Amino acid sequence: MRYSTRGLVLSALLGFSICGDLRAGDFVSLFDGKSLDNWQRIAQKKDIWSVQDGLLVMGGEGGGWLATPKDYADFEFSLEFLLSSDSNSGVYLRAPADTSHISRSGMEIQILDDFHPKYAKVQPWQRTGSIYHVAAAKTGHLKPAGEWNEMKIKAVGPHVTISLNGVTIVDDMIDKHPELNAEHTGLARKSGRIGLQSHNGVVKFRNVRVRELGD
């Protein structure tokens, strides 16, 4: 009887752990290295998004942004990116699938060639990994143009954490910025699209993945 009780307890704990993993879901690739079929193009004026040698490539300004076909609420998102000199892009979070100013109506995580002289005087919240105009990232962890960087983003309710090349550079509660509420309506959004922004220069992406979190 003692053995049976222990077995039941162990099974219950094991079952709880397994269910927890299933509820969290598995990482899903958003880019197959062959096409942009998993993305919706929004506000595109020029055809600057392409697939080259298995990489997703942003080729300059005017391309609007690429959006996931579905909304995400709580999630972990990761990608690798390679910047060209003076390039500028970003990751959109909980964004509406429209042509609004997404850094305000949703959230934007900056991707920028911080080392280029033209960006020497940008604000701290404009550096790579920052929640644009909301929370400045810790600097010193971005690799130079021409080298691959890995970014990981976790959003659970209002808690957003961002790591760059294995170092946490943002750990922010986005509901703790009352002075920004009027301008940044996106901070109150519970869900939305994940997207890639075109701004300028060439930025290459690979290993773009997302993992839904939740009950």
Largest sheet: 8 strands, antiparallel
How many beta-strand elements? 13
Strand content: 35-45%
What value does the Rg take, in angstroms? 19 Å
Overall geometric form: globular
Mean pLDDT: 90
How far the N terminus sits from the C terminus, by CA atoms, comes to 34 Å
**What number of domains?**
1
- SSE order: HEEEEEEEHEEEEEE
Describe this protein's structure:
- The structure is a single chain.
- The N terminus is likely disordered.
- With 215 residues, the chain is mainly beta.
- The chain has a single domain, classed as Jelly Rolls.
- Strands 1, 3, 4, 6, 9, 10, 11 and 13 form an eight-stranded antiparallel β-sheet that branches.
- The protein is built from two helices and 13 strands; from the N terminus they run H-E-E-E-E-E-E-E-H-E-E-E-E-E-E.
Task: Offer a few descriptive terms.
disordered N terminus, single chain, Jelly Rolls, 215 residues, 2 helices, 8-stranded antiparallel beta sheet, 5-stranded antiparallel beta sheet, mainly beta
Q: Summary?
A:
Helices cover 13% and strands 38% of the residues. Strand 3 and strand 4 form a beta hairpin. It has two helices and 13 strands.
Topology:
Elements (H helix, E strand, L loop, with lengths): L1 H23 L3 E2 L10 E3 L6 E4 L2 E4 L6 E3 L6 E10 L4 E8 L6 H4 L1 E6 L35 E9 L2 E6 L2 E7 L19 E8 L2 E11 L2
Antiparallel strand pairs: 1-13, 2-5, 3-4, 4-13, 5-12, 6-9, 6-13, 7-8, 7-12, 9-10, 10-11
